[in-house]
Design a protein that fits this description.
The chain contains 15 helices and 13 strands. The protein is α+β, with helices and mostly antiparallel strands and 438 residues long. The longest helix has 19 residues.
């Protein structure tokens, strides 16, 4: 069983911070109260509540000369034919110290120069950014509990001995479900998509591939089921629920499961031939078969720019708040982003990777795993956040637009540059060599 703390009960009062007028107070008293409120806020949230703005690396304890190595890494990967281009964003303590586009967003059928406004298919970042957040909101609302069983919402899921699987098992990839579906067999059995109900029916009928809670196998199916549960409980499609509860309150205009025409024109293609069918439409075969206006797919399908994703990342480092808007309770963010798996299993939070075998490629060798978390996406995307240094970095690319495209060294190289540029990690030893195939 995943290790879940008492935070799952979610009974903390979000209105615990003091409110009230300071009318009639002298200016010095007002200032004193303001400082006191900031102090109390820090005690409550565990960190300052930063709002993103641009600044120099040195203003937040980072070294420009080191951070500048990102340019050469991106150029090398583009010149090597591993990616057509990418967008990199680095921020610390609310200060964006680097936000730059490299290469092209498309090389076929014709070239299109990349820009920071390029819309990227986030692929499996959808699991952490969208689906996990939807579940977390419902936990905060008191409508879900991590120990609730899947069969409480989808009774047919209990087939083949899966009646013991809980929401926590799905979120930590310890459910027993296999990694993915053979979509050619799905289409043969159920016909052409989209057909989200057929996917749910098929997953519910599957047997376990291992005993629940005793192992960990990364599975897209876990998050397909979680998204459907979120929709059943919230009473609305997950993409609308998130737009209402997260994207719009945070001023995030770009995140979409269904990019509009203007966004599609800015979208990076994810197929080698640059087909319009793979611009602004999800690359993942399972999600393509599943997604409809009534049902967002929980494993992939979200699109965004780096800047809007950065707002979300900063909200997490602020422990659930951004610009005076509370999205998640602080203890909920802590629960999502700290280890919830058994000691003998890969270290995962709820929906977020902490130190699984795949994590070193996204985190690099300098930033320690103790207080960092993140996720990657198949199309060539990654987001990694470090609580200790209050830093995050985003890499968005469309490596699937290149035959045999690869982002392993791009991710690792940029992660190590970010780590070495931080004042608190500058004494770390040189990066070791990784041999794991990501």
């Amino acid at each position: 069983m995943p290790r879940v703390t008492d935070c799952q009960n979610h009974k903390t009062d979000l209105n615990a911070l003091p409110h009230g007028g300071l009318r009639g107070c002298a200016r010095g008293t007002v200032a004193w109260f303001a400082k006191a409120l900031v102090f109390l806020s820090c005690l409550t949230t565990g960190c300052a509540s930063h709002v993103l703005h641009s600044g120099t690396p040195e203003s937040v304890g980072m070294e420009s000369s080191v951070l500048g190595e990102v340019d050469s890494i991106a150029k090398q990967e583009i010149d090597s034919g591993n990616i057509p281009g990418c967008v990199v964003l680095v921020a610390r303590k609310g200060t964006i110290v680097r936000h730059k586009a490299y290469g092209d967003r498309a090389v076929s059928p014709e070239k299109a120069t990349n820009s920071v406004s390029t819309i990227y298919d986030l692929a499996s970042l959808t699991k952490a950014v969208a689906t996990t957040t939807a579940i977390a909101l419902l936990l905060d609302d008191g409508k879900l509990n991590l120990n609730n069983k899947v069969i409480d919402y989808l009774p047919s899921f209990g087939a083949e001995g899966k009646d013991d699987v809980t929401l926590a098992h799905l979120l930590t990839h310890t459910s027993g479900l296999k990694p993915y579906l053979d979509m050619s067999l799905i289409e043969k059995e159920y016909g052409p998509g989209p057909n989200p109900d057929a996917i749910i029916q098929h997953i519910c009928s599957l047997p376990k591939t291992y005993e629940t809670g005793k192992s960990s196998v990364y599975s897209c199916l876990n998050f397909v089921i979680l998204a459907r549960i979120a929709e059943e409980v919230s009473g609305e499609p997950m993409h609308r629920f998130l737009r209402r509860r997260v994207w719009l309150p945070l001023g995030m205009k770009e995140p979409r499961f269904f990019p509009n025409d203007e966004q599609t024109k800015r979208a990076a293609p994810t197929h080698p031939d640059g087909s319009e069918d793979y611009r602004g439409r999800v690359h993942d075969p399972l999600a393509r078969y599943y997604i409809t206006p009534e049902h967002a797919c929980g494993n992939a399908g979200l699109f965004s720019t780096a800047h809007d994703l950065a707002i979300f990342a900063q909200m997490l480092l602020n422990r659930g708040e951004y610009g005076g808007v509370r999205i998640l309770k602080p203890e909920t963010v802590d629960l999502l982003t700290t280890v919830q798996t058994l000691p003998e299993l890969p270290k995962r939070g709820l929906g977020w990777d902490i130190d699984s075998p795949y994590a070193p490629w996204a985190r690099g060798d300098v930033i320690p795993p103790d207080e960092s978390f993140g996720h990657t996406g198949f199309t060539g995307t990654s987001l990694w956040l470090d609580r200790k240094s209050q830093t995050f970095f985003i890499i968005l690319s469309n490596r699937t637009h290149i035959e045999k495209g690869d982002v392993a060294e791009l991710r690792r190289g940029i992660a190590n540059v970010v780590g070495r540029s931080l004042d608190i990690y500058r004494e770390k030893p040189a990066p070791r060599s990784l041999t794991l195939d990501p």
